[in-house]
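Running low. Got one?
___
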Amino acid sequence: MYLKEVEDTLKKHAPSVKVQTYFEPESYMGTGFLMLGLRVPFQREIFKTGFSFSNKSLDEQLVIWDKIWKESQVFEVLTQAAFFPEKNVKKLGGKKTFDLLKNWIKKVDNWGHSDLFSAVIAKILVTEQDMVFTQLNKWNASKNPWQRRQSIVPLAMYHRKNKNIPFKQVIGLVEALIHDDDYYVQKGVGWSLREIGTQYPTETWKFLQTHINSISAIAFTASVEKIDPKKKETLKELRKKK
């Protein structure tokens, strides 16, 4: 009943013709789920407006959104479900929210949902580092590329503002994926190096120099976006030589 309500609400607002682009939105997002073509800001407005069950207790809503996440095959409906832990992470608590995401991540097949989860996990990292790192290490060695990506992107988001996780602890997860053959994992490697570098510039600079011959072009481009232009040129020259 609630799944149908959310799907009907979103479908009612879906454009009759998807925005014309050079590519299909599913291809751009990298997803196998049906996309209705609703932009994220508008989806957030729909979530903010609420549904018939939005006044229920958080635990009751959690059960409903869990069922919706597991049963829907519509990208925007899954996004609505992902907004729930994002909004309520403090009220639900880090452990309960993280337990939910650990279960849900098995269904993730695109960077949009993956990034939503990463942002929530970055918030949980503030208070639950040991619990989160135990899982990040497991995801780091997963056969699922979206789980491997999830093992490092939360660190990138976390390090935009924080520096209290030792460099060696975070760089180990990134280094383990340097040779990963998945495009989105490589993007995650680059973003992580870029953001970790804002908090640990000296250590990251040395890491980039040491591994300059191993970092993929995809990861390298993202990793040097915030580096001093002269240092960036130095790294580029090193890559040419090697």
Observations:
- The chain has a mean pLDDT of 92.
- Residues 204 and 210 are 10 Å apart (CA to CA).
